[in-house]
Amino acid sequence: MKKHIPNTITCLNLISGCIATYWAFQSNYELALLFIVIGAVFDFFDGMSARLLHVSSPIGKELDSLADDITFGFAPSAIVFSWLCGLYANMRCIPLFALPFMPLGGPAVIVFVMAAFSALRLAKFNLDERQALGFIGLPTPANALFWGSLIVGCGDWLATLPFASLIIVAGTLVSSWLLVSEIPMFALKFKTWGWKGNEVKYIFLITCIPLLLLLEVSGLAAIIAWYVILSIANSNFSK
After folding, report:
1. How far apart are CA 74 and CA 72, in angstroms?
2. Could you write out the DSSP letters of every residue in 37-73?
3. Pick from 68, 21, 69: which is nearest to 46 by CA?
4. Torsion 70-131-221-94 (CA) sign
5. What does pTM read for this prediction?
6. Strand, helix or coil at 136?
7. pLDDT digits (tens, 9 = 90+) for 29-70
């Protein structure tokens, strides 16, 4: 019986991603983000339960990657796609470059490359033995939380910007690259609790608090952006 517990939790993660995708296509970005967060909670506990119960299995590893791509790849892509379609629907003039794509949702279809790159990132993670204590490239949950919280917290403001659609599409391409990049990014794993050797992690955790208090939901997006910047700075400093 216990061998099925981790996979059941993983399936709950996958179901959360499916529900998040549904709400994304309904333009209810708050609920979509909520179910991405719920999926992230299940994603945390499926691995923990497998280790505690000593029931790790190859099928569990593959199922976990599939669930993660739905929740942290396809669902955030659907959020951005739906938001962009809403933006185009409210535009009085459609850009000429968008016209050939309008039956498919315009240039918004490009954002689904994020789901493909998320799948590639997860496949690489399964085979990459360098990522035991840190990450190589942006983790998929971080990318999903960035886009979900950005649209929920700043969507109305972003819609007022000139070339908003191009900015968002370009942003999804950058984050897709970050997912599969060779940039080392720290993980919040502690061998010891002392300051030495954990400086970057403690600085990150301390600065997260004011960002959340000041920016609320969009603070999550700011935290992920800060995480990327801090990881790149730490990597360059280490070299």
Report:
1. 6
2. HHHHHHHHHHHHHHHHHT---HHHHHHHHHHHHIIII
3. 68
4. negative
5. 0.90
6. strand
7. 999 999 999 999 999 998 788 777 777 777 888 899 999 999
